[in-house]
Amino acid sequence: xxxxxxxxxxxxxxxxxxxxxQAQSLPASxxxxxxPAPDEGGLTGSVTDxxxxxxxxxxxPAFPTDSPVPTAAEGxxxxxxxxxxxxxxxxxxxxxxxxxxxxxxxxxGIGYPQVTAPSFDVWRGRSAEMLVQGxxxxxxxxxxxxxxxxxxxxxxxxxxxxxxxxxxxxxRRAAHKCADMVYSRLSGENPFFDSKIAYIAxxxxxxxxxxQLAIMDSDGANHRFITNGQATALTPRYxxxxxxxxxxxxxxxxxxxxxxxxxxxxxxxxTEGRGPTFAPRWSPDGKWIxxxxxxxxxxxIYRVSAQGGASTKLTDSPGIDVGxxxxxxxxxxxxxxxxxxxxQVYVMNADGSxxxxxxxxxxxAATPEWSPRGDQIAFTHIGGNFRIAVMNPNGGDLxxxxxxxxxxAPTWSPNGRIVQFFRTExxxxxxxxxxxxxxxxxxxxxxxxxxxxxxxWGPVLP
Amino acid sequence: MPALTPTKISALLLAAASLSLxxxxxxxxxxxxxxxxxxxxxxxxxxxxxxxxxSQADFLASVLADTIHFDxxxxxxxxxxxxxxxxxxxxxxxxxxxxxxxxxHCDERGTRDYNIALGERRAxxxxxxxxxxxxxxxxxxVVSYGKERPIALGSDEASWAKNRRAVTITVQ
Lengths: 462, 172
Known about the structure:
- The complex is a heterodimer of chains A (462) and B (172).
- With 462 residues, chain A is mainly beta.
- Helix content of chain A is 10%, strand content 37%.
- In chain A, a hairpin with a 5-residue loop joins strand 18 (321-326) and strand 19 (332-337).
- Chain B has a single domain (6-24, 53-171), classed as CATH 3.30.1330.60.
- Chain B is built from 5 helices and 4 strands, in the order ααβαβαβαβ.
- Chain B has helices spanning 6-21, 56-62, 79-94, 112-132, 157-163, and strands at residues 67-69, 99-105, 140-146, 165-171.
- Chain B has a 4-stranded mixed β-sheet.
- The longest helix of chain B has 21 residues, at 112-132.
- In chain B, 44% of the residues are buried.
- The A-B interface holds A 205-207, 209, 211, 232, 234-235, 248, 253-255, 275-276, 278-279, 292, 294, 296-299, 320, 322-323, 336, 338, 342-343, 366-367, 380, 382, 386, 405-406, 408-409, 424, 426-427, 429, 454 and B 73, 75, 108-109, 111-114, 116-118, 120-125, 128, 143-144, 148-151, 153-155.
């Protein structure tokens, strides 16, 4: 599968403008650009208190079209598609607990000319503080142009605007990009909606669980099963460019890690090692794969080029060294080891040198994952129950994000603001993918067609 | 190692029975092998009435158990496990062409990757003990299922104790 680069134009924010053929210009709004105030650059939100901007009232009416024409995108014509686009933006902003938007199904429609000339008085009367408007147009070749505008209703001014040119099949990505623009502008954080998740879809009874590799967009759309479940599949990780997935499969009876190529549907063994291989992870640049291999019952961490070739052994302790997650700059690796007698979290240089334990609080600490921002490490804390927690890269500032019977295997949103994990139900063994933001307050279950575990969140799409 | 006589096997069976009756709190109760039909003929594979000699059924009928159990996060083979593995080594000595797979398993109260490593450790501990009894290492294949294949389905100590196990399965 090809990841199409979305053509982005007239980005008001300092986003890279992709080179693309159409030299279309996005209509400028009549509203004046907001002058950068001293505290501009997004309403600042700290990790502990985000209430100021989370309670913003955001109105998102349907995106009108200049002329309703048929389209292959969902809705069948550009008028219906405009409604769907606004719904996706609304759901993105609402479902993550970040904002309290009002969507197109609860708002009157707007005319095409109003997209760039909002009726601010009407929106003030509806107590909207922020207004997201957009439009959609179809070119004769079927390509869609989607415009996205963010207005500050109180100021009566435009805060940001972007436009996207997409294939009809990628219409949701335009909406995610729009939601990302709104989120970034209002929170000051990096975007994350236009991204994908690989995970394990689970069905069947506890003692005969069928586990399939599956992928979906960050909002659960475009769901697709990759494997058929005949061989147990576990612990997938998307390559940073989304072209491949590395995961564990019991194909041929033994646990081995494979690289699955999404475009070709082919897969190959990562290494022809002697022992079972598991717990695969990509380096941030996609050039290396970390994995664990057991030889004679002793598990160590190895690194191999994603192209194949000889492996380098990074750990050499008599205990179980497993997992591993690179720091965003690729210079360090956080991993877990029971060399001290129980599972604890360690950090080492990327070449395996300078291994040192960083977790010294009570209980066990497992499955560490370095935040894409570099400032936090998420992990599974085991002390009675299994809880998702975060700490700084030195093992300090421990904070629990969840409190349930068994939550494990955290994975970060591309912007390092949200942690996804899976929760197992006591007794039934049923699993589900959940996510929680760094405040620990906004926790929700993702909608997946069947049970889900082992989520792995990929980066923001280009 | 000398071959076990039927008398010794009976003694082992008695020992296992008394162990399971005793207050051995930390381990799951061991399942004794299925009761042999009529007179105990299963240790004499030439008898036409018993299971096919060298078969998995014969293995199950001949050994103390196909499964050993472990304490939480542990992988050591204790004296009770040693008795079971000795009976398995005895059967393997009788059928030198037979291969076995040793499956390592964990309970659900562990993280996924770690449990795969721990199951590997448990299966290897059992394998190493069989090898120390004279079984050729090349006859034993090890596979860890981590927490993926529980046999007891509850979320309680008794179920978890049953799931922390290494199972010997003959390759037919």
